[in-house]
Design goal:
Layout (H helix, E strand, L loop, with lengths): L32 H13 L3 E6 L2 H5 L12 E4 L4 H14 L6 E7 L1 H5 L2 H10 L4 E6 L36 H6 L5 E6 L3 H13 L4 E6 L3 H4 L6 H10 L6 E4 L3 E4 L8 H5 L10 H32 L1
Parallel strand pairs: 1-2, 1-3, 3-4, 4-6, 5-6
Antiparallel strand pairs: 5-7, 7-8
Helix pairs in contact: 1-7, 3-5
This protein binds thiamine diphosphate and magnesium ion.
Length: 311
């Protein structure tokens, strides 16, 4: 039965090994959450992995040919094509009988929520056997911090400058993918590496398309201190702004971490992109958060009901 497995994982169970697949000397900014995410992802998936990266910060982080900061093969592809390019790599590997090689699409929020969504939708609909990780820094960071549909309400970006911060809420990407009846979709955070690693390992074991939505801190774009990246990522979860949960076949929802619901002021207060927010706007974030959690808990209940009816 799909019950809430609140705070279900044990941090002591994380054994990722000593092997590093993301070398020091990569070109990520100090405090970059995506670099930490890639480090954890490759340690979990291992050397039999091919990474497909569209235009995004990470295409830069890896370095330019003939150099690479990543120890496994990397393919750089056009902005909108992460999912279908990864599916193509998968098809080639399968044709060669190399079905034990993981194909990891690693794309930003702009390349996933916006420009790559159509290709991703097609890949999920065909259920191509890839792991897709969207590292979400909540804007088009590589080209100078432009708003994406993953940018949260109230955030400053260069295209939502003060006094006109973003007015629209963040797009519910997991909801969209769940409605495709994707075998596995989950959110994850760099501040919860055990949970992220477990989800990657689970994704690896399931055939078909798997989607992970990884929240990452971005000191450059969020106007935050580099040393606070993990604290901010943790607060995104603990305030309830970024819930950790997973969905199987679009129906079975499981909340993986029950937050302490710390006040959102703690989270926004550490990021310059929210510095202009009024009390009223912070109140709007609080009430949006409450209604999002109601929706999420309703989805968990619906999943439970459907499962009980099936038995
Ligand atoms: C078709 C196309 N349009 C625009 C660009 C320019 N471009 C390169 S990276 C990027 C931003 C990507 O944003 P996101 O996917 O969120 O990744 P991030 O840079 O934040 O890591 C843009 C707009 C491009 N390379 N190709
Ligand atoms: Mg981005």
């Amino acid at each position: 039965m799909a019950t809430i497995q609140a705070n279900a994982y044990d941090p002591r169970t994380l054994h990722l090994g000593d092997e590093e697949y993301l070398r020091s000397g990569h070109l990520a900014c100090p405090g970059c959450g995506a670099a930490l995410g890639m480090r954890i992802a490759l340690k979990t998936l291992g050397e039999k992995t091919i990474v497909v990266i569209p235009a995004c910060c990470f295409a830069v982080c890896v370095g330019s040919y003939p150099f690479s900061a990543v120890k496994v093969p990397v393919m750089n592809v056009a902005f909108a094509t992460a999912a279908i390019s990864a599916a193509g790599v998968r098809a080639g590997l399968d044709a060669q009988g190399q079905s034990d090689v993981n194909v990891l699409a690693w794309a930003g929020d702009g390349g996933t929520f916006d420009i790559g969504l159509q290709a991703l939708s097609g890949t999920v609909e065909r259920n191509d056997n890839i792991i897709y990780v969207c590292y979400d820094n909540e804007a088009y960071m590589n080209t100078g911090i432009q708003r994406s549909s993953a940018t949260p309400y109230g955030a400053w970006t260069t295209t939502t400058p003060w006094p006109f911060p973003k007015q629209e809420p963040k797009k519910d990407i997991i909801g969209i993918l769940a409605e495709h009846r994707i075998p596995y979709a989950a959110t994850a955070s760099i501040a919860f590496p055990e949970d992220f690693a477990r989800k990657l390992a689970k994704a690896k074991s399931i055939p078909g398309t798997k989607f992970l939505h990884l929240w990452v801190a971005c000191p450059t774009g969020h106007k935050s201190e580099e040393r606070l990246s993990i604290r901010i990522a943790r607060l995104a979860v603990e305030t309830g702004i970024f819930p950790l949960y997973e969905v199987e076949y679009g129906a079975r929802y499981t909340i993986n971490w029950e937050p302490s619901f710390r006040d959102v002021k703690e989270y926004v207060g550490l990021q310059g992109r929210f510095r202009h927010l009024t009390e009223e706007q912070i109140g709007t974030i609080r009430s949006n958060l409450r209604s999002e959690w109601k929706r999420l808990r309703a989805k968990v209940r619906l999943g439970n009901e459907l499962e009980q009816e099936d038995h």
